[in-house]
Amino acid sequence: MRLDELLDELQVRIDAVRGTRDRVHSLLEAVVSVGRELDLAQVLRRIVEAAALLVDAEYGALGVIGPDGRTLSQFLTVGLTEEAIAEIGPLPAGHGLLGEVIHHPEPLRLTDLGAHTSSYGFPPHHPPMRTFLGVPIRVRDEVFGNLYLTDKRGGVDFDTEDETVISTLSVAAGVAIDNARLYEASQRQQRWLKANAEITESLLSGSPRPAVLELIALRAREITGARISDISMPVPGAEGLFVEFAAGADSKARQGLVVPFAGSLSGTAHQTGQPVAVVHASDNGRYPADAQTQGGLGPAVAVPLGTTGGESRGVLLLARAAGEPVFGENELEPLVAFAGQAAIALELAERRRDTEQIALLEERDRIARDLHDLAIQRLFATGMTLQSAARLVEHEGAAERISRAVDDLDETIKIIRSTIFGLRTKDRESGPGLRARVARAVGDAATTLGHPPRLSMEGLLDTDVPSEVADHVMAALGELLSNAARHAGATRVAVALKAEPGEIVLTVSDNGRGIPAQGRRSGLRNLDDRARGLGGSFTVDTPGDGGSRLVWRAPLPTGS
Fold it and tell me: Does this model's pTM top 0.85?
């Protein structure tokens, strides 16, 4: 009997040794598997899968701690289907029991997680869970995140050996995460350098400013994996930024928006000249203006494009989808450097445009000088010669023709002098053009409307539209925006201004209550009279989906 007992005990110990051996092998395989990956997202996924497998847990999760050090910015799960995750609702932010491991980064093992003082319970549709094991993951000297494991299969509790295995895995995970982050940083740096070189090459090849802006926005969005990418420029004299180019989701709705300085990421970055980042762009209380234009978005960052006098020359805004990684310090540094290079590119584009404008003005001045010094003098001399010759002509018909020719020469001299005056007047013109005036008026209207209108402008507004017509356009725009603010009750207003061959068209549409049939129409009558006075028209339509659409038209000189 004693021999049988000893043999049974020996068998139990052999089985325990084999179990330990198998577990060590599994742990080594998990470490190798985790360390094999270089993509950070894949590394994180492999870590949580390996952890659940090693301790035979039914559910596992890996929470990445956000920049504030108190909440979770990412939460990866194992054991839950996509349908179950959708039913549960928003992912945990790191409160309750999960926050206990964040605030006290030490292994935590519980036989009943619901009995812990920090437990808040489960949201609706959440599967029941009892046993719990939480272990922090450290990367060098910082706590990167935590591993959370629940419900060991077989209904048993997590033991000391489980805690040791997961703690060992967390050390290997920290090394793998560090390697993946270093690799990702080097790859990202290469992409930024390539993007800077591409922008410089585009600039040197003579690409226009809109093309340079588009390239900056697209490359920044591709490298950061952002869902949207906007470039906003300050409007002279207005308290807002004009979204000059937008890329990504709903780009057409965002392009042309006037974003106020107050209550927006872009406005804050512009005024402070410093990058500004948030975890949730859509529901951040510090920037309520962004919630109206960036619904459904998560982490976001606004980076100034160079600074002059404490304010930026423009702002690059990037935002990822909800639940994606936040913009950390490792991303901000190369992004700020890229924005600085982009600012230099924009400044060079503006300097080149100024140089071209100076060259154009000098050419105009040369033409005017040559017309005055050469053409007019020769025409005047020719007229004097004809007048002298007319006295020697006895034929009445021939003398009359010579006299008409002299009058034609005199009229030609007047036309040339008028052309010279026109050329030199354009040289001395100053002040904002129609495009800037419209952007400023639309930006100012955001205060009275309660939301930023959408603005789109097409055509050569600053060159094809005479100043007197531009003044009428601004008066009509002011009246239309005022009507929308006072009477429409709209939550969305769009302004479109287009200079077409021979005509300028101003359209203001909204989703409000429309134009009442018996309402006061004095303002609309004034708009109609103003358009008719220029030879144009004014129409009021009611789209099928409600609201109103007001179109004001005026002719342009055919020579424009």
Answer: no
